[in-house]
Design brief:
This protein has one domain: NAD(P)-binding Rossmann-like Domain (Rossmann fold). Helices cover 45% and strands 14% of the residues. It binds NADP nicotinamide-adenine-dinucleotide phosphate. NADP nicotinamide-adenine-dinucleotide phosphate binds next to helix 1.
């Protein structure tokens, strides 16, 4: 069987890096997209090489997804990539790149809202659309990294949660539009790793998690891997949250 190929956005560190590493360990060739985290992404490759004694099956692709010209060149590079051509297309597209900040609703600027909707809705829409021929020919799987905010009122996060809701609905819609060739699913992490600004808030959230601890990046990566391997699952959301979303 030809080597399977994945593109993960924002794959240089944290959850994206864990996912890229797990895919490589399972024999995938991974196109690791980054904006700034080139050094961190190179470290993923070095770690693989040290552990396995062979060249990492990956390539780092840099693009600022806020820039239309960067998106255009990313699409060109991926669609014409020799591994994508050799392997019969793109087997996985993981929309992981994200921004996350907290701000009172009263003061959220239109610019902040647009940055969130751009990265969480517009970019996944355009990247998926731009890579349809490659996804179709490989019977690929698209995964949206959302979160567990569905149906709840999160203080100071309206700009973030509303845009993740858009991503969730986009993925659910595409599960219908792109069937039967392409499967589309979501992974919804709970409290996995805190952003720099939220360590106190994060600790208070973890206290409410039924499994009694924060998740690890590998927990999320394993859910992504499960969905990639599960060829009869489409239009589903897996919460990776230690039971948080069902706790009263
Ligand atoms: N961490 C959690 O506990 C948690 C909880 C719920 C949901 N999630 C979701 O799970 C996914 C991974 O979480 P995370 O915390 O690991 O993500 P993250 O660190 O917040 O962001 C992932 C990557 O997004 C990239 N990015 C941001 N703006 C970009 C832009 N304009 N162009 C291109 N790339 C850009 C960054 O790449 P560079 O570093 O290369 O600039 C960053 O490393 C996200 O979708 C997040 O919303 C995470």
């Amino acid at each position: 069987m030809a080597q399977r190929v994945a593109l993960i956005t924002g794959g240089g560190k944290r959850i994206g890096a864990a996912t890229a590493s797990l895919l490589m360990e399972h024999g995938w060739f991974v196109l690791i997209h980054v904006r700034n985290s080139v050094v961190e992404a190179q470290q993923i490759l070095e770690d693989f090489e040290q552990k396995n004694g062979s060249k990492a099956p990956a390539e780092i692709l840099q693009a600022d997804l806020n820039l239309d010209e960067d998106i255009t060149s990313l699409l060109q590079v991926v669609s014409g990539h020799e591994m994508v051509e050799k392997s019969g297309g793109l087997h996985a597209l993981i929309h992981n790149a994200s921004i996350y900040s907290s701000q009172d609703y009263d003061s959220v600027s239109l610019e902040t809202l647009r940055l969130n909707t751009r990265l969480h809705i517009e970019v996944p829409f355009v990247l998926t659309q731009g890579l349809l021929p490659q996804l179709r020919s490989a019977n690929g799987c698209v995964i949206g990294m959302i979160d567990t905010s569905l149906g709840l009122a999160w203080k100071g996060l309206s700009h973030y949660t509303s845009s993740k809701a858009g991503l969730r609905q986009l993925m659910m819609n595409l599960a219908g539009d792109l069937a039967p060739e392409i499967r589309v699913n979501c992974v919804a992490p709970g409290a996995i790793i805190a952003a720099d600004w939220e360590s106190e808030h994060f600790a208070s959230v973890v206290e409410k998690v039924p499994l009694g601890r924060a998740g690890e990046t590998i927990d999320v990566a394993k859910a992504v891997m499960f969905l990639l391997e599960s060829t009869y699952i489409s239009g589903q959301i897996i919460n990776v949250d230690g039971g948080w979303s069902v706790s009263p």
